[in-house]
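Hi W., the adenosine-5'-triphosphate complex you wanted:
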Amino acid sequence: MPIFVPGQRWISETEPELGLGIVLSVENNRVTLLFIASSERRTYAVNNAPLTRVRFSKGDLIESADGWKLKVTEVKEQNGLITYEGVDEDGTPRTLEEVELNHFMQFNRPQDRLFTGQLDPSELFRLRYETLQKIGQLEQSPVRGLIGGRTSIIPHQIYIAHEVAHRPSPRVLLADEVGLGKTIEAGLIIHHQLLTGRAERVLIIVPEPLLHQWLVEMLRRFNLRFALFDDERYWQFEHGNPFLSEQLVLCGLDFFMDDEERQEAALAAGWDMCVVDEAHHLQWSEQNASPEYQFVERLGRSVPSLLLLTATPEQLGKRSHFARLRLLDPDRFYSYDRFQLEEMQYESLADVVNHLLDDPILDRETLSQLKSLIAHDLAEDLLNRLDDPERAESARAELIQLLLDRHGTGRVLFRNTRATVKGFPGRELITHPLPIPEAYRRLLAETQPEIEDLLHPETLYARHAKEDTPEWWRLDSRVEWLAKTIKSLRSAKVLVICAKPQTAIDLEEALRIRGIRAAVFHEKMSIVARDRAAAWFADAENGAQALVCSEIGSEGRNFQFAHHLVVFDLPLNPDLLEQRIGRLDRIGQTETIRIHVAYFEDGAQGVLFRWYDQGLNAFSQPSPAALPVFNRLGSELAALLRVPNAEEEIRLIERARKLAHAIEEELHQGRDRLLELNSCRKDAAERLVRLIEATDRENDLWPYLEDVFDAYGVAVEEHSDHCYILRPGEHMRTQFPELPEDGVTVTLDRGIGLAREDMQFLTWEHPMVRGAMDLILNSEHGNAAMSLVRHPELETGQLLLETVYVLECAAPKRLQIGRFFPPTVLRFLFDQDGNDLSALPFESLVEQPRQFDREQALELVRSRQKLINRLIQNAEKKARARMPSVISDSTKRMLDTMTTELKRLAALRRVNPNVRQEELDQLKEQAIEMSNCIQGAHLRLDSVRLLVAV
Ligand SMILES: Nc1ncnc2c1ncn2[C@@H]1O[C@H](COP(=O)(O)OP(=O)(O)OP(=O)(O)O)[C@@H](O)[C@H]1O
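Structure:
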């Protein structure tokens, strides 16, 4: 039984965070301690107090309550109290009574805990080591950040996410064709940036109808909890900047418009990343930049990372498209004229790139083309490397990257198409030409209709309606046809899209009267009402059969569970038509899409239908030529819509067809080929997919988690194959991350995770798993242990010390030093004679179930304290010896990256006067700063284990 004397210093084994305790009194077999650092008092039974006596040894450096330090040379004990003798920092001999020791001393360093007998079970040491190892592995994994999403692994998405997420501050335009998964790509990138600490504060801005969809997608697919900011939420804040109250914020674009104060608040809120969906709405021209554009432009300047998403980047004009590219990379996209000039050279550029990709030897002509293309690019070394068989392959890859970036479509633009992604179900066009109602014919003849009126005569009719005239939908034959069509489809879901919100409202009423369960969805409804309507439509059993949407209302929404689309009226802009079809024709669509189009055969609607069908072939697949053809022949089309003429129409449609064909050919040879190469390299994408699939198959997560759950007292119950129910156990040590009181069902299988959204899909990147790893490493759990082990090369009784060091580099967050210097784990094993046995793998030391008795253990540690200290010094020496090579490797990696960046900027500066010298200087300074941080990397002893061989 320990003997307690008032004035002695002890620490609590169960609550080491209390600091150094002092014995106040010992009475009736009870001892009372005061922990001055935490102002706590504790009383224990003397015979089983969970306390460890603090006793320093010769050579230790200790601190007094007054703050001076003593190097101990002698330890004396009298009447149960210790006096330390030694010298202070000035070399003056002094003594320190134990009662005068610093009350705030912490004993959570591994060696402190070992010497004070705070030993953890060996399993915790193992768990700690495995956690460190795994974190190192995960940090190095090329697919880090991309495995944790509840998503199918789709090559083009993974390629883009990988390519973009690894840039230090990504600024890109995600412009895949409609429905190919831009939201998912953005989610993967955000997930990666948050997980790797490259971003902490993210703002997503989307059109209001998409708020809920984004909120849900981020949560259910990526476990990211965005806070939705609307008027109500915003007004709750009376003081301070509301945006500072959350790290992840989702807002509608309209939320900012007409409200300068909100814009200023958002601009002042210090985001790391900003995402803007449906970015084609950011209209720009030299004379008139839209308020939306101006706002995002200001945001873009203040935020390091910017993701813009649009399926139809040129919908509001090529200049707007260019303006958005400039917003992302002003150094590369500085002149519209030059941008256009470059476009003209895309074909020959693509030709050179193709040769670089395919030809084992470059012919003279290609070489000279290549030389002239990169004349200003500071890339002579790459050209020289082409002749070196060892380095030619990497030189080719770098040259292709350089050509795409500096002369092609640029590294900021990603666009995948159905033609390259493949595997989408087909489309079937079902047409319903109708005669134009007499009332419309008369009205159009009597007025001077605009094209809008010609295409939407119901709006003209409504404008001229008198009190006693019937509503338009009572006489419009399309409405009758619509009702019949929907009824004939019985229970199949039908999405109806028309241009105007009022048309959608009227149609819903018309359908309701005819007994059809239809919901309506348009921009004039509140967000809640819209989401309710969409949910009612999505409900497979009791939901609405039809959803009538306006153009803007339907943009970006996921309706692929429906297979029938009714195009109630045709838009003039072909991108809008593609957006409409894209509601159904998107990833996840399982059937052929039936596109029903009704139109009035005589007149503008008929002309427009034939233009789309025969001229642009726009119903069967998206055509990259549709918009350019419309831009070139649009005025002639408009004339024909005003005054239809059969012969003229045939001629115009023929011209459109030929032009579309020619443009498609040209784009195919030039721009699209470059875009394709930039947007998804098949081999690289497949490599990444294979890596993710291999990670999914590795099966090392569950065994690890079982150990964690066991160590922390989480109860596990089998649910079914690969699925488990987790609950707080009776002996749970501490609050376990992401584990609700009433438990949670989890799966480790991606297929099940995709199908069963009621289960959590656990991966190494799931918040519960990351939380568990943090729990282990942020505490001292397992940092000091003692084990009996068996190994054929060890002799019974042999004493060994296992030490685990972590080599870390501290740097300001903005430098993202982890890219070049992830924490490095170094493990050493020495025996009592100082022999280095580190080559014996961790797993080969077989632990014996017999544990040390605590008193025995403490005695062994104390009696061997000198030896242990010496072995720790040996290990530290070894660890230090490894530091230079780790430091020089990461310095080299950093310098290679920064040099490429510097060269790029310098080359751009030669052609673009807007690239400022300061930008180059900044990059150089950054490189120097990073180099200093890397040089200052430090070693930390993470854990120790004393081993006795048996
Ligand atoms: N990898 C994936 N795994 C599972 N579902 C996916 C995946 N990629 C996309 N989807 C689903 O496919 C649909 C289309 O994806 P998403 O909304 O990201 O496309 P988009 O390109 O943003 O569309 P739009 O052009 O209409 O804005 C969504 O329902 C999405 O959940």
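The chain is about 45% helix and 20% strand.

W.
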